[in-house]
Amino acid sequence: MESVEDMPELLFVEHFRLNKSTFRRLCNDLRVHTSLRGSKEIPLKIKVLTALNFLLATGSYKRIVGVSQNLTQRTTSRCVRQVVDALNHPTLMSKLIQFPQTVQERSLIKEEFQRKYNLPGVIGCSDCTHIAIVKPAEEEHAFYNRKGYHSLNVQMVCDHNLKIMNINAKFGGATHDSHI
């Protein structure tokens, strides 16, 4: 099995949707600012890679990449939950996800959208995605989506560099994107 350190940068980005230096910074932030820890069996970096691969790359338990050490679905689910809980820590949320607050920040983003994509006046791109969840015990109908499974319908807004600036994960999968 190829180690993360030996994996070519392009392959790493393809599997995990971020580069190695950003990944190292994320792991360090999680270690410093949250209670997320690795274990002898599953190091912190494997937990984070498993969650990134599931949440950002595949959305499926069936294709968890080799660096995840072929974890079971139950273990994968536990890793994803632990990492998501850690990412929701207020310190990390305020550090990692920030909508541009000043006129200057918004102007810079508008200029970059215009320069890179010839899109004038844009400060963010918005889309929703379904994140699969275990069937909830309460209000199950609010989470059953049109695709036939239980989910959260999560809206994200990103800038010209695909940096996430805002996330709204408050709605069940039955909620239409236009409502969010």
From TrEMBL:
Cofactor requirement: a divalent metal cation
InterPro entries: HARBI1-like (IPR045249), HARBI1_animal (IPR026103), HARBI1_dom (IPR027806)
Claim: Hydrolase is one of the keywords in the record: yes
GO molecular function terms listed in the Swiss-Prot or TrEMBL record: hydrolase activity; metal ion binding; nuclease activity
Residue span, DDE Tnp4 domain: 127-180
Function of the molecule: Transposase-derived protein that may have nuclease activity. Does not have transposase activity.
Similarity section: Belongs to the HARBI1 family.
Name assigned to this protein: Putative nuclease HARBI1
Species, as recorded: Parnassius mnemosyne
